[in-house]
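Re: Re: ligand-bound prediction request (bumping)

Still looking for help on this. To restate: I need the protein modeled with magnesium ion bound, output as structure tokens. Inputs repeated here so nobody has to scroll up.
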Amino acid sequence: MVSFEEARSIILSSVSSCGVERIQLLDATGRMLAEDVSAPWDMPLWDNSAMDGYAVRSADCTEIPCKLKVTGFLPAGARAEGVVVEAGCAVRIMTGAPTPAGCDAVVPVEETDDGKQLVTLNEKVVIGQHLRSRGEDVQAGEIFVRAGTLIRPPEVNMLSTFGMALVPVFRRPVVAILSTGDELVELGRTPGPGEIVNSNTLSLAAAVLETGAIPRIIGIARDNLDSHREMLREGLKADVLITSAGVSAGDCDFVRDVLEELGARQLFWKVGIKPGGPTAFAMHGTTPVFSLPGNPVSTMITFEEFVRPALLKMLGHTRVLRPLFKAVLREGLKKKPGKIQIVRIRLDRENGRWLASSAGSQQTAILRTMVEADALAILPADSENFAAGEEVDVHFYGSYIDLI
Ligand code: AMP
Ligand code: MG
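Reply:
Sorry for the wait, this slipped through. Here it is.
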């Protein structure tokens, strides 16, 4: 048996990205940039006005109010070549328009009488005011987004500013999902006696989608060696394989044996956590194989704690673990010593603190508590009793509230 931390570090040191692809900028939203990108030109590309107003020579404006002759107009999109602010004159200018020669300040229209032929300035003028200079944001050749950056609207804005129609991002791994068990029927069929719907496959596929990876549903391996061989062989063609059930020590638990027969190298089996103890992890060539326990609560929690960080790493993320923070227990908790216990909780914010209460029965067979939970508390292996008012480590569960 390995500890929770050992399991995570074995997994994270075994997986890496599955290459780079160049895709349309908008499609890259939410993806991780795979290469540093440097600016092909200065931004802004010319000295320009930060306000709608008048381009002036500050030396002409020492006495306020002061009157200047308006000799030109530079709207956005205009070119400033040949336009000069002569002594005693001003050029009407719009925000973003290139500043004309001779000017060393812009006076906002609000500080003038808005004159068309003659303009009166009513406020003091400071040299350099409301001017933006070429390259003040980014200079040509400067790296403005680094590899490993999440592409969000600000990155999309900057990449498009520099004309990057195609961007290099880490490929989305294809994640094969395989359920095992004779009791399973696919969604759409009413389960007969002894049968249950194969809910894990869909829940795993949803969890894979939430990370940004691509789920590929393989189906159900039946509880015999041949079916396991056929389905696992198919699953091993993907970038990642996740199996559910058949990984404990029961009579029909064939997953690990058949994986080994197919050439997978097991790196651990059994982790010191509850739920999720029987989890196994193997590498088949460069394909990581996660064998998760079949109980739906255990499947989802082990995906969350082990598979999700691995997929995020493969997608190019460098911060792959959800942030842990402290929450105060509203009620006492008990556990057995020896294993980390993961408790499904609800969180409320009160007086600047997070308060944790149980989301319902913590039995692993109670699926509903998973739906009610918005966070997981990670109770340390060696402790047994947790009093009301004690602080414990928690993290949110669910991508919609990832960051605090
Ligand atoms: P096993 O590891 O095969 O003993 O399965 C453990 C428990 O999880 C059993 O109660 C199974 O019926 C249940 N289970 C296994 N696979 C699935 C699945 N794909 N969807 C829902 N429940 C499952
Ligand atoms: Mg089974």
